[in-house]
């Protein structure tokens, strides 16, 4: 893992001469084809305001895996569907109704298991439904970078109409760029008014085809099981337009959609395969979890040996329960899987440490003793400029050989969110004198662990900092 001067120049989109000049300024004489080590590359890149990301062997492998599908390797896969809509409009009933009419009667074998997703057959096609309705789960997954949904079913009760969560769902789904099918539910109700729903939906650019739009509407009664087959047909139709494909002949990768720690079985994760085929015995990594797939159970409660793209399966054998929305992937062997998980763990730790660099007066003494801090950064907000100056002056005088007290910012007025962000970014504490924080500042301070202290008497503020430096401060409760 090294790079030549010429290659670096190309990556940074500057001339080789510029790179060589920078290297010279760093005291390094280099030729065009000379290999540079990681530290040197980082130094040079910094000069061009670029930060270098060094990838481990395992991570490089992962990148390669993601790009090497040829068009001829891609095979059609079934769509993954999420059901969204306002509370009480019938999402859960619809999911149950589809499962009950299709899974138990349609296919051989056992009782359906709630594993977080299920697959049904609609004629020759299969459809995968995510079993957790609502946009909270949908968006939580997206926040982790997982887009598992191919089609969103927006459920609207025909006797009610477009409600706040309907609108929220529309916005979330549109933001994700996922096609919407509107399921107008509860058509069995005497007060059902399908036309009214269509009109309201048109206001959100969901215009039915018969009105010249391109949104598919399906009328259903989830409770009575009416219109379910038609809805499934519509899903197949919309998915065919998407031409969903995946390479089934690859090491499997995908997304965790649910996980739990089971008393008898240990960590259990339901995963949705997006690419490749997952086999019992595969070595997998998911976030900080890793392990060999000991067993796979499908949504019918059956043990299976392999699972193809768009199939949800419960897997056993992981070292811990990974988070929903986390990706998983099969690695060549146990060792590389464990390494990848270990690297993730280290990254998380580093991030945690960076986030935890918040300083507080309560543990100031300990931090000083452990050599963790040399500067005590303080932000002072006060009601008048005179107080700011007085406090700043007195605080900075407290500096001793172990710690340097630095007031990095002063200002007149309430403690605001900018103050807190500054404090968070520079590991500072905030002292407010005769002022109060506004609500957003208060919230952010709490979230980021910023120590924010309010005083009415200058002497008290100075005394607290002094005591904290000596480890004599009484903790605040
Ligand atoms: P969710 O909050 O969107 O998951 O809604 P539920 O599935 O829990 O349904 C809310 C209520 O509406 C329940 O009492 C259901 O029995 C009822 N419900 C759902 N679908 C229908 C339907 O098609 N017709 C009628 N009449 N009631 C329904």
List the helices and strands and how they pair.
Elements (H helix, E strand, L loop, with lengths): L2 E2 H8 L3 H10 L9 E2 L1 H10 L9 H11 L7 E2 L3 E6 L5 H16 L10 E6 L2 E6 L4 H9 L7 E7 L6 H13 L3 E6 L8 H9 L13 E4 L8 H15 L2 E2 L6 E10 L3 E10 L2 E2 L3 E4 L2 E9 L5 E2 L1 E2 L4 E7 L8 E5 L2 H22 L8 H6 L5 E8 L2 H12 L7 E9 L4 H9 L2 E6 L5 H10 L3 E4 L2 H13 L7
Parallel strand pairs: 4-6, 4-7, 7-8, 8-9, 20-21, 20-22, 22-23
Antiparallel strand pairs: 1-2, 3-10, 5-6, 11-12, 11-19, 12-18, 13-17, 14-15, 14-19, 15-16, 15-18
Distance between the termini: 52 Å
Total number of helices: 15
Biggest sheet features: 6 strands, mixed
* Range of strand content: 25-35%
- How many β-strand stretches? 23
* Class by alpha and beta content: alpha/beta
Overall residue-averaged pLDDT value: 86
Low-confidence stretches: none
Radius of gyration: 29 Å
Protein name: Translation initiation factor IF-2
Organism: Proteinivorax tanatarense
GO molecular function: GTP binding; GTPase activity; translation initiation factor activity
Subcellular location: Cytoplasm
């Amino acid at each position: 893992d090294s790079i030549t001067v010429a290659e670096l120049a190309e990556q940074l989109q500057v001339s080789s001469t510029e790179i060589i000049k920078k290297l010279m300024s760093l005291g390094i004489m280099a030729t065009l084809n000379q290999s540079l080590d990681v530290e040197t590359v980082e130094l040079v890149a910094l000069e061009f305001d670029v930060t270098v990301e060094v990838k481990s062997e395992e991570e490089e492998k992962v990148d390669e895996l993601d790009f090497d599908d040829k068009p001829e390797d891609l095979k059609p896969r079934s769509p993954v569907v999420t059901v969204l809509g306002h509370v009480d409009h019938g999402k859960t009933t619809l999911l149950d109704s589809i499962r009950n009419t299709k899974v138990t009667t349609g296919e051989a074998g056992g009782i359906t298991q709630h594993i977080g997703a299920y697959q049904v057959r609609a004629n020759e096609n299969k459809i995968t439904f995510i079993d957790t309705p609502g946009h909270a789960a949908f968006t939580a997954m997206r926040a982790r970078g997982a887009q598992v949904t191919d089609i969103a079913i927006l459920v609207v009760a025909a006797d009610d109409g477009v409600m706040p969560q309907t609108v929220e769902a529309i916005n979330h789904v549109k933001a994700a760029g996922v096609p919407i099918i509107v399921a107008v539910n509860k058509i069995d109700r005497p007060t059902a008014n399908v036309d009214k729903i269509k009109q309201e939906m048109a206001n959100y650019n969901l215009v039915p085809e018969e009105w010249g739009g391109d949104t598919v509407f399906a009328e259903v009664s989830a409770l009575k099981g009416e219109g379910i087959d038609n809805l499934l047909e519509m899903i197949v139709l919309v998915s065919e337009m998407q031409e969903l494909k995946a390479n089934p002949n690859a090491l499997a990768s995908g997304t965790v959609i649910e996980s739990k720690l089971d008393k008898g079985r240990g960590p259990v994760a339901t995963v949705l395969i997006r690419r490749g085929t997952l086999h019992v015995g595969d070595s997998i990594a998911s976030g900080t979890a890793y392990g060999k797939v000991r067993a796979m159970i499908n949504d019918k409660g059956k043990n299976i040996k392999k699972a193809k793209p768009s199939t949800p399966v419960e897997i056993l054998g992981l070292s811990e329960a990974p988070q929903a929305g986390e990706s998983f992937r099969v690695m060549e062997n146990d060792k590389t899987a464990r390494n990848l998980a270990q690297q993730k763990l280290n990254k998380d730790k580093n991030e945690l440490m960076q986030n935890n660099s918040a300083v507080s007066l309560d543990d100031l003494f300990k931090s000083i003793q452990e050599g963790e801090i040399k500067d005590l950064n303080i932000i002072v907000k006060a009601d008048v400029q005179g107080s700011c100056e007085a406090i700043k002056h007195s605080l900075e005088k407290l500096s001793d050989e172990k710690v340097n007290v630095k007031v990095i910012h002063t200002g007149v007025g309430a403690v605001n969110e900018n103050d807190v962000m500054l404090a968070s970014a520079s590991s500072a504490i905030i002292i407010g004198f005769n002022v109060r924080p506004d609500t957003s500042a208060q919230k952010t301070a709490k979230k980021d662990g910023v120590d924010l202290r309010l005083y009415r008497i200058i002497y008290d503020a100075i005394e607290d900092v002094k005591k904290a430096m000596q480890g004599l401060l009484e903790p605040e409760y």
